[in-house]
Amino acid sequence: QKEVEQNSGPLSVPEGAIASLNCTYSDRGSQSFFWYRQYSGKSPELIMFIYSNGDKEDGRFTAQLNKASQYVSLLIRDSQPSDSATYLCAVWPNGQNFVFGPGTRLSVLP
Amino acid sequence: NAGVTQTPKFQVLKTGQSMTLQCAQDMNHNSMYWYRQDPGMGLRLIYYSASEGTTDKGEVPNGYNVSRLNKREFSLRLESAAPSQTSVYFCATTLTDTYEQYFGPGTRLTVT
Predict the structure, then answer these.
(1) What three-state secondary structure class fits A82?
(2) Which of B11, B43, B54, B73 could form a disulfide linkage to B35, CB 3.0–4.6 angstroms apart?
(3) Of A4, A44, A97, the CB nearest to B45
(4) For residues B63 and B78, is the Cβ–Cβ distance under 8 A?
């Protein structure tokens, strides 16, 4: 069974710090990787996707992918209280449907 | 553009009752999905439709049926609701070439 694992948290960081969210996946054939942010009571919102090994930056967000280690991470620089949410890692195994991790709850403390 | 819309937003059913959750998209995407989200379990795929006229089972299809009415609409039916189907249900669409997925606002369903 294809699995995606994340630390459930909560992960607490002070305002202005770097938040690091981690995700591991079991299917070596996975090709595409996504990070969603979900505020309490709301639907998931796509914030980053990455297909190639290495880093991809978008504003304060950086996604990092290491296919050899089957590991993908999301860094949030200069964390703000508005970043407090649950972050879902999603993996698209080649030719299959999305597999979502259980999510990591992030709390940014003012 | 409304994106992905879902109705109703909230619903309370008694065990054994039936209902249909509606989903519509104006993004012209081919693929549509139904997920359920339970605390601590992430999103689990119920059914999906890769294109108009096709539907396939996901991870947790038991107790559900779907209809892809046209390219815009994808409905989820509970024929005989059970308390285990208490959950938040999300509809989503996916861009074919990048697999970016966009979610509707969700339906909170309680079965008593």
Answers:
(1) helix
(2) B43
(3) A97
(4) yes
Helix (H) or strand (E) holding B21: strand B19-25
Nearest CB to B103: which of A8, A43, A103? A43
Six token digits for residue A61: 């967000």
**Rounded Cα gap, residues A12 and A5, in angstroms:** 19
Kindly list the residues from chain B whose CB atom is less than 8 angstroms away from the CB atom of residue A42: 105-106
Backbone angles phi, psi at B48, to 5 degrees: -145, 165
Model confidence pLDDT, tens digit, residues A25-83: 998 888 899 999 999 999 999 999 999 999 999 999 999 999 999 999 999 999 999 99
Tokens representing residue A32 in the block: 């595409």
